[in-house]
Amino acid sequence: MLAAQSSRGLCAVFLGDSQEELKMNLKAQFPKTSLIEGGFEMNKLRSIIRALVTPPFSLPVNTPIDIQGTDFQRQVWKIVRQIPFGSTTSYTCIAQKIGAPRSIRAVASAVAANSLAIVIPCHRVIRKDGSLCGYRWGVKRKKKLLNLESLWQKAL
């Protein structure tokens, strides 16, 4: 996992197989970024990451977030952020909630463009038939995250 912040707040949480892969993805998405490792800000990010990987997998209260995207993407991500821990919804349902029921593919594209893994829990978006499909960070990770949430939901 790699977390990054802008002057406005947390702007990226990437999942990947190696630190090099994560850094390359960050540089590709935010080309003007300068990577600063260590220091006070790094310690703040570490506590945010800890919260994201500890059930119920959520941000510490009052963590500023810099959600960068188009108006449409932000609309989709706002709905995705409302999906309760341990639950799922479909691309179709999101399209209906934003008042664009025929925009299922556009919703799927917005979900795929999410740079804030777990913060904007796109892993909770599945097909209408209940099956898993693409996930920016890999379908295996999506399945693992959903399974972890399901297990913790039962334990709560």
In CATH, the topology of the largest domain is named Arc Repressor Mutant, subunit A
Strand proportion, as a percent range, falls in 5-15%
Helix content: 40-55%
CATH superfamily of the largest domain: Winged helix-like DNA-binding domain superfamily/Winged helix DNA-binding domain
Biggest beta sheet attributes: 2 strands, antiparallel
CATH architecture of the largest domain: Orthogonal Bundle
Elements, N to C (H/E): EEHHHEHHEH
- The mean pLDDT is 89
What is the domain tally?
A: 2
- CATH C-level class of the largest domain: Mainly Alpha
Architecture overview:
The relative contact order is 0.15. The chain has 156 residues and is mainly α. The strands form 2 sheets. A two-stranded antiparallel sheet has the order 1-2. Strands 3-4 form a two-stranded parallel sheet. Helix 4 packs across helix 5 (104-112). A hairpin with a 2-residue loop joins strand 1 and strand 2 (9-14). It is 44% helix and 10% strand. The longest helix has 17 residues, at 139-155.
